[in-house]
């Protein structure tokens, strides 16, 4: 390649000499000289590979396609027939381009303005590269039995079947004290591309702060952003800039670097920077190849209740109300329709509305969320009309501001005496006023203070209020102090108060201990506790606590978790009352065509790592070992995050050396409470050896020094033939191939069947091909 470029430089220099001679002889100029050769192409200091350049007279010519491939947008310019092809004259596009031919380095350098370079969109919080969304059919049965020393026995169970990503689900509760009770039953259809979830059956429907929260048996359709967690529903943070040379972008949020990104010359657009709620600062630092640095500071405020411009969220439900979920199986009562819809009119204003109706009440009203320079403001107005010909009005107002130096807000809900919703009838008692204020302030790095106050005024019961304050002190990385105080005023005239102080210490191995004291109107008490949470995989956890006071109590809980379930024993002492409870929780997961697996309860998605036929291979979830494959080469992976990219992998060292494997890691996203199969196919690389003989109507011919071609499913493998017709086929999988023997001694075609084998080298012996 270097030699070609050196030759090109020599030819170019020769062509220039000829051109100069032409200029000297104006009367009888010689015919124009054309020279073409490959040159390295540099665009705005970025290497774009090799391109053919043609020189004629004092101009350079190139293919438009080569410039497009180098990242330069289409140019006007003049096309000329040169060297038997249509090429673009660089002289005709200079300006806006500028170029320099370097014969010594054999390089053509082009400088293009930003408007002629493509815009690169960079998703800073986007979908992981290579993510695969699986919708494998699977089922599960969750069980959670419990028994006490008093003879009470209960069982909670859940059954689900994920059919191509759509979930059929039902639950039930059985007890020795009561009849069996059905829980929720529904069929959920998820449309990830449209972010739409349709539920047929029982579901909880929420319609906002002035509305209801009720179980409905019927049909519900909702915009569900959890179906694609990489889509941001909040206003996007980003930046648009340009760079004339290759550069590196570093993105910082509140001083912490969250992304480093290489940039090509041209315009770049940063989108979807993920930040926490509240106020903060995003900083973009751009360093080009020459070390020049540019810093852009972008303050922001993100409010969780405000949608990005053009986005919407909604819930619409029609069916019958369920009034006693968990206590009755068929507790459907009044028909009802409920709905809520919100639309982002701009990045700062979201407009919405709510409506709900039964045969007894109609209720609804508008709502608005606004992002201001000093926080988020939410306002909702509601009105209702009941069957008793009573009307009601309600208003909800909230304000919040969150930053690194202070956080606070207030809320107030005001309702008239007969304001009604699906949940609250016009005759029921309700708070006419429900309000509160909160404030939190970090003091330095190790201190934080928080306070809150609430006030409620009920129509029938009267008023209640409470104030409280809490302080957190981080003494050391492992040692923390918590102190709180509260005072309440209840409707019955009581005024309970309490002061609490606790010192907690985090020990190695996940153990935590704490010692605290409590003082209230009933007296003083000493609190002691120790605990350890269950690990992600196999292991134990516990919780032990004791309260020494006038009425002492104690509790001891021990748990152990395996890959197949969770088991625990809980012993409680409260005065003279004592109770021992034994419980367990586990599941059976069914994946058709793969197997049935005992596992931990299925709460979200789950997966199966498959290394078919290879046992004892370590499997990983997000680089953490979770177990080994069974004798069939399968390993169930519980607790995957649905619709998120979960990195599943295997340990290549555990795969026997005779096997070939293409990949050891993949990123999969299962559906909600569904399965994702991570298939890591392994193959045994075979070498098939033998010797061909051609049977030409009884005459035996050895096809020496020829070749054999074997074809299967569009692929072809070649092997030379030796003096005795020997051949060796490499990279051939067990199958039936069409083989073509080609030699000066004769040609022949046959069907060559190669069988599977545990051997790497498979001897086929003498293979005879008959000429027909």
Helical percentage: under 10%
Let me know the largest β-sheet.
Answer: 24 strands, antiparallel, barrel
User: What portion of the residues fall into strands of 2 or more residues?
Assistant: over 45%
Rg, alpha carbons: 37 Å
Distance between the termini: 50 Å
The average pLDDT score comes to 87
User: Looking at the structure, what is the overall shape?
Assistant: globular
Features of the shown structure:
24-stranded antiparallel barrel, 7-stranded mixed β-sheet, 57 strands, 4% helix, 61% strand
Note down, in words, how this protein is organized.
The protein has 772 residues and is mainly beta. Helices cover 4% and strands 61% of the residues. It has two helices and 57 strands. It is globular, with a radius of gyration of 37 Å.
SSE layout and pairing:
Blueprint: H1 2-24, E1 34-43, E2 46-56, E3 59-62, H2 64-69, E4 79-82, E5 85-89, E6 98-102, E7 107-111, E8 119-123, E9 132-133, E10 138-148, E11 153-163, E12 166-175, E13 181-191, E14 196-206, E15 213-223, E16 239-243, E17 247-253, E18 256-263, E19 266-271, E20 278-288, E21 293-302, E22 312-322, E23 332-344, E24 349-358, E25 361-372, E26 375-386, E27 391-402, E28 407-415, E29 431-443, E30 447-458, E31 462-476, E32 479-489, E33 497-506, E34 511-520, E35 523-532, E36 539-548, E37 553-561, E38 565-574, E39 577-591, E40 595-599, E41 605-610, E42 618-621, E43 624-628, E44 634-640, E45 646-650, E46 660-661, E47 665-669, E48 675-679, E49 682-683, E50 687-696, E51 699-701, E52 707-712, E53 715-720, E54 726-730, E55 735-742, E56 748-754, E57 761-770
Parallel strand pairs: 1-7, 8-19, 9-47, 41-48, 50-57
Antiparallel strand pairs: 1-2, 2-3, 3-5, 4-5, 6-7, 10-11, 10-39, 11-12, 12-13, 13-14, 14-15, 15-22, 16-19, 17-18, 17-20, 20-21, 22-23, 23-24, 24-25, 25-26, 26-27, 27-28, 28-29, 29-30, 30-31, 31-32, 32-33, 33-34, 34-35, 35-36, 36-37, 37-38, 38-39, 39-40, 41-44, 42-43, 42-45, 45-47, 46-49, 50-51, ...
